Amino acid sequence: MRSTSFSYLIFATMLIALGAIFLWVPTEQEMGIIQRIFYFHVPSAICAFIAFFLVFVGSVQYLRTREDKWDRLALCAAELGVVFGLIVLISGPLWAKPVWGVYWRWEPRLTSMLITFTIYAAYLMVRDYGAHSTQAPRLGAVFGILAFVNVPLVYYSVDLWAADQQLHPPRNVELAPAMLYTKWICYAAFFLLLLRLLAQRMELARIETAVARLRQKLSDEV
Amino acid sequence: MSFLGRALAILRKDLQAEWRTKERLSPMVFFVLLVLLVFNFSFELGGAALHEIGPGVLWSAYVFASLLGLGRSFADERENDALDALLLAPGDRGAVYLGKMLGNLIFLLAIELLSLPFFILFFNLSPGFFLVPLLGIFLLGSACLASVGTLFAAMSNNMRLRELLLPLLLLPMILPALISCIEATALILANGRFEKLLPHLQMLGVYAVVFTVLSLMLFEYAIEE
Amino acid sequence: MGGDDPIVLEGAAKHFGAQTALHPTDLVITRGQAALLAGTNGAGKSTLLRLVAGLCRPSQGGVRIGGRDLQRTPEARAAIGLLSHQTLLYDELTARENLHFFARLYGLDNILERIDAALVEVGLSQRQDHRVGVFSRGMKQRLALARATLHRPSVLLLDEPFTGLDTGASTALHRLLREFRTTGGTYLLVTHRLDEAEGLVDRLLVLERGRLQLDESLQDDLDADALRARCAPYLDVAP
Predict the structure, then answer these.
(1) ipTM score of the complex?
(2) Which residue from B minimizes the CA distance to C74?
(3) Among A23, A155, B30, C238, whose CB has the most other CB atoms within 10 angstroms?
């Protein structure tokens, strides 16, 4: 997944996506040009959730097998999930200002994403502050499992709370065909990007661990 | 040597020790009072503001107090160098979690009950029938806090900057439960209809059950070396 | 191989991140044996002891107590008693309450009789209702001994048990260990003070840099100097 041909594929898909977003797709009636942020915002959210699911998978598998590769998956996926979450949290207010007049409103979707973001930011802290490097993966795995189970609860409970504040554009709105195609192209582009970044980051993590082991071995033999 | 037997033995030991020293309970109740005091200077607590901010203030005070209290879950073991004693005991270590979790549940409930009079006083409430459903919310809320809080306390036992980290881990995770506690309390104080209360009760129930079960299963991993 | 020997390590190892505290180790200690685990600081003695006690999960391999794998059968820990330099006692509770708690934790029956007997054996009956916090070091260690043997373990693990003991308590511990062996008990003793190990051990294990350097049975009860001489070649620094 780190091969050059895959990189070209991603590059091409992104180019097509950008072309679709800025050149092809028609401007939405109500909101105008700013609506195009939707094509970045939504795929990022989906990628964030895929990443969080991968954290869950990595965590469960790490506790079962204690193999480093699962721990690497969990850590790298968490980092990427936080990054994509940040994109969502930044693109949201950028869209909100022209449309609603304010940068932030405590409406359910953005609020839930913010809470989820803090949960996974906490995950990264658990990794950083584990007492030594066998603690961190294990404690992270425990937290990673709890975090993912909590996500649906977060969304449900914020929805309950904001039942009288439905401001976010409805989820299943009818999209014109062109918009639908653009949306799917963007999903594909962002997903491929996620895979690539994940693969790259995991390889980096693998090298880091190998270097640490080598260092330890050398200092032992001295 | 039953699972429940061991859990209850631990619960009993913690209650015994706490009763002797009362070192966790009194400072926590005092802390709730202080938080309410601080809030008073931020908002006007009496009168019309009650229904809008009252439940939030109440639960904020409880959550902050519980953050301090939960961090002490294994303090008895830490200070006596006795954690190994619990881990040495045969059988599923989930029993240790259950014993500690029940202890925390009772402890949090005690704080809430003991500081309720302050709340009634500052908010000029007249004690009435609402106290009964409110106790139910206290119980559910404490169960939610204790379920994750005990597990995180065990985890942060092994971590640097323990006191700093526990709140950072716990607060985001308990938000769903906290939201429902606040909403449910608001509904009760406003004599809301039961149908509106039900989803929140369900939320709290599901949260408490899910996270207690998960924590029971994951505790071994959190506490092991 | 292994059967139901009291202590069996099969390729057990412990890594802390990139550091190895214990390299994969095979060890069988048979019933009635008393082994001395010697080595310099940081050699891995505590790690090995904690692995055998089930307090530490092996990164590789397994540990069996009486034929049962510690990770798979948590009940196997019932056969183990641990006496370390940490007393594992609660200062706020009385001696009696401490023992009562541990008795319940281990699911023992005849709790009251057992506690009475244990307190008599370690000479703390008079002080049983005093808080452990006011005990002297020697008294705490005596109570810890009662705690460690309350559930009649078949395997005793001792980590620097003589630290801070006065002569009386030390003699009592010696006596208890000898009695323990005659009833078929097995123990693993970690101590720096080889003079304390005199007459107590029939097997010598030397750990250095996480590896078992020496493992031999001792024909006669060696005195401290002889033990020291046996260990010396395998240690980086003479004890």
Answers:
(1) 0.89
(2) B91
(3) A155
